[in-house]
Amino acid sequence: MKALITGGAGFIGSHLAEYLLAGGHDVIALDNLATGSLDNLSAVSDHPRLRYISGSVLDEDLVDTLASQVDTIFHLAAAVGSFVIRDRTLASLRTNIHGTEHVLAAAHRHQVRVLIASSSEIYGKNTKIGLREDDDRVIGSPLLHRWSYSEAKAVDESLTRAYVTELDLRAVIVRLFNTVGPRQSGRYGMVIPRFVTQALAGEPLTVFGTGEQVRCFCHVLDVVPALVALVEHPEAYGTAVNVGSSEQVSIRELADRVLALTGSASGIVQMSYEEGIGPGYEDLQRRVPDCSRAHELIGFRPTRTLDDILRSVIAERSRPGLATAVS
Ligand SMILES: NC(=O)c1ccc[n+]([C@@H]2O[C@H](COP(=O)([O-])OP(=O)(O)OC[C@H]3O[C@@H](n4cnc5c(N)ncnc54)[C@H](O)[C@@H]3O)[C@@H](O)[C@H]2O)c1
């Protein structure tokens, strides 16, 4: 495979780059380092089959040139994280809509297969246990910045579907549920790195809302092989596929587990979303996927538990100098 990974210096993108290089593939990583970091690629920075390109998916000519050099695109570049969407709503919409348009158009021009990273945010406030790909979206007002990420990803999905049905593009949409593990930054609102960093620093863990909201966390090393298997699977083209874990945990329980596993006595403080993220934020009570489509297509089954995930993040952040550097 000759792969282009947009967002290749990001959390998931860098793990994907390592996985592909280990499998003997060629990788071009395109990133503008908005939320990514070259440190994420440090383990492979000298690899002869890795080429890093500094640039944006908003640069249509650059995306076209890179697409002409590969046979597969993993489109992971996006404005991500509730703090990013809150602070740069307009730029985030542009990246998440126009960036994807450029990738799809270039993939079509050069007959390259493509994976589009979408999100469980698509389902909005639908609290069904076991969300399936054809379930309804339950979305708040488009005037709340909170929903603009979900809206942009939905536009991306509709564009992708139209490219497949009208123009025969080979494209799969993957709806990632909370994907976590080493290298994920806590700076932009992600809960596990934030809790672990707080616990190790002896600061109280800040739980937004009641803490009763339920999430399922999947280790990035379970997710990455699924991305590769799905882009290689012709039956996946034109569909959306949930990828995530179904091990449920409330955010309050998550905070307790982080405290127990780090041995930290820093405690927990609860704060409203208004205080923690600012006005215009609505939370979701529950987000639990049904991943039977991914299982049927590629045999997907996460193997790592939440405790495995927490231990791997704690180990990473306990290394000297790292807890603050990657917070
Ligand atoms: N991590 C999760 O839980 C999760 C859940 C659902 C969906 N996703 C999706 O997975 C993808 C990867 O997310 P991640 O968790 O690795 O986050 P991340 O922030 O680490 O990765 C996004 C990468 O895109 C880069 N980027 C942003 N704008 C860009 C631009 N204009 N041009 C080039 N690069 C740009 C960033 O610098 C970063 O490296 C995203 O599309 C995201 O929406 C992630």
What does this protein look like?
- This protein has 327 residues and is of the alpha/beta class.
- The chain folds into 2 domains: 2-180 and 219-243, Rossmann fold (3-Layer(aba) Sandwich); 191-215 and 247-284 and 303-325, Alpha-Beta Complex (UDP-galactose 4-epimerase, domain 1).
- It is built from 12 helices and 15 strands.
- Helix 1 (11-22) links the parallel strand 1 and strand 2 (26-31).
- Helix 6 packs parallel to helix 8 (251-262).
- It is globular.
- Nicotinamide-adenine-dinucleotide binds at residues 6-7, 9-13, 30-36, 56-58, 76-80, 95, 99, 117, 119, 176, 178-179.
Short summary of the structure?
The protein has helices at 11-22, 60-67, 82-87, 89-109, 148-167, 191-200, 220-231, 251-262, 273-276, 292-298, 306-318, 322-325, and strands spanning 2-6, 26-31, 50-54, 72-75, 113-119, 129-131, 171-176, 179-180, 205-208, 214-216, 218-219, 240-243, 248-250, 268-271, 288-289. With 327 residues, the chain is an alpha/beta fold.
State the share of residues found in helices, binned by percent: 25-40%
Going by helix content, strand content and strand pairing, the class is alpha/beta
What is the typical, i.e. mean, pLDDT? 94
How many separate structural domains?
Answer: 2
Distance, first to last CA: 34 Å
Pick out the low-confidence regions: 323-327
CATH superfamily of the largest domain: NAD(P)-binding Rossmann-like Domain
Radius of gyration from the alpha-carbon trace, in angstroms: 19 Å
Number of helices: 12
Q: What's the total number of strands?
A: 15
Give the biggest beta sheet: 7 strands, parallel
How much of the sequence lies in strands comes to 15-25%
Morphology: globular
Q: Please name the CATH topology of the largest domain.
A: Rossmann fold
